[in-house]
């Protein structure tokens, strides 16, 4: 049996109390879903291998500076904490990206007071051995499809350190525009964060990745929306 078939078998069934387990975002190459324990284990193994050049730190919270075993364990705890903290007024949806049965990265979509603001933010990473193949673009396109088409968002925002060209290349490809800067302290020194913003019109004009959304209807109340 292929690994893709195995993952399909062990993936948790959607619960009427937690229907997010039935949500699927499909792109030409990927399936994004809420992770089962086996998916989280695969993602944690990927994180332990390394996500970026150790000489740099692309994350505002430098979780990848931890030793590999601690990094892997912390990843599981982070995902579980997002489930536990979920509220319709403030939610973080962290999905794993499945490429032909292999977990290759994770894509997050976050919203605060979403029914009023209609704005989401995103964050992601791809395992180092899978980088440079356009997977990051496809992952973000998937959650943008969920945000704008599925949830009715008006804006999507993102941010990265000024030297993170890979992130900005994805943003430019998807139609984001510059939205100002911030300054953060990382590893004891100041870093410039560049913000980018995508509105609904720009998203519609730059859509190139087809996205299919499955299992969304029963999830809408969890996002603060009417079913």
TrEMBL record:
InterPro entries given in the database record:
Acyl_CoA_acyltransferase, GNAT_dom, Ribosomal_N-acetyltransferase
Q: Name one Pfam family in it.
A: Acetyltransf_3
Domain N-acetyltransferase: where?
30-199
PANTHER family according to UniProt: RIBOSOMAL-PROTEIN-SERINE ACETYLTRANSFERASE
Put simply, this protein is called: GNAT family protein
Species source reads: Actinoallomurus spadix
